[in-house]
Amino acid sequence: MSGCLDNVQCHLPECCRIGDKRNAIASVLAGIFFFHGWWIIIDAAVLYPDNSQMKHAYHVVGIFSTVAFFMINAVSSGQIRGDNYNSGCLGQTGARIWLFIGFMLAFGSLIGSCWILFGGYVTNSFEAVYPGVAIFLQNFFIFIASMIFKFGRTEDLWE
């Protein structure tokens, strides 16, 4: 069954064609998002150093999001499909479990940052809501970075 957009062709000018630069562009974009996520939370930690304004335990969500970033991008698509990975502890099944746990950590961190923003700052009517917004933006940017780094690159260029 074909899709409705299979026959649509978009002719891009020569300057806008990505070609062999796809992996480099995706890596740089993911790095920019990852950097900005951590930069925002460092800014919030410097502006609100007191534990009453921004609890230090809220940084754990960003650490879990960073661990999820590395877990998601530690396995290649070939390992998930089973194309080039038949050894190891659990083989293809182990790679899929590892990726699933990484996605659970990423989504859990994003949901946790939403809970911190709304439950900890918006509903309690703090005078400063920026620490909650910074925690959410950190986790959102790291999540976007992990998705760009995982799905924006292609493994065809590695060969």
Summarize the structure.
The protein has 159 residues and is mainly alpha-helical. It has helices at 22-47, 59-74, 77-81, 91-122, 130-151.
What does this structure look like?
There is one protein chain. The protein has 159 residues and is an all-alpha fold. It has one domain. It has 5 helices and no strands. It has helices spanning 22-47, 59-74, 77-81, 91-122, 130-151. It starts with 21 loop residues before the first helix and ends in an 8-residue tail after the last helix. The model has no long low-confidence stretch (mean pLDDT 86).
Number of domains: 1
Shape: globular
Portion of residues within helices: 55-70%
Strand content: under 5%
How are the secondary structure elements laid out?
Blueprint (H helix, E strand, L loop, with lengths): L21 H26 L11 H16 L2 H5 L9 H32 L7 H22 L8
Helix pairs in contact: 1-5, 2-4, 2-5, 4-5
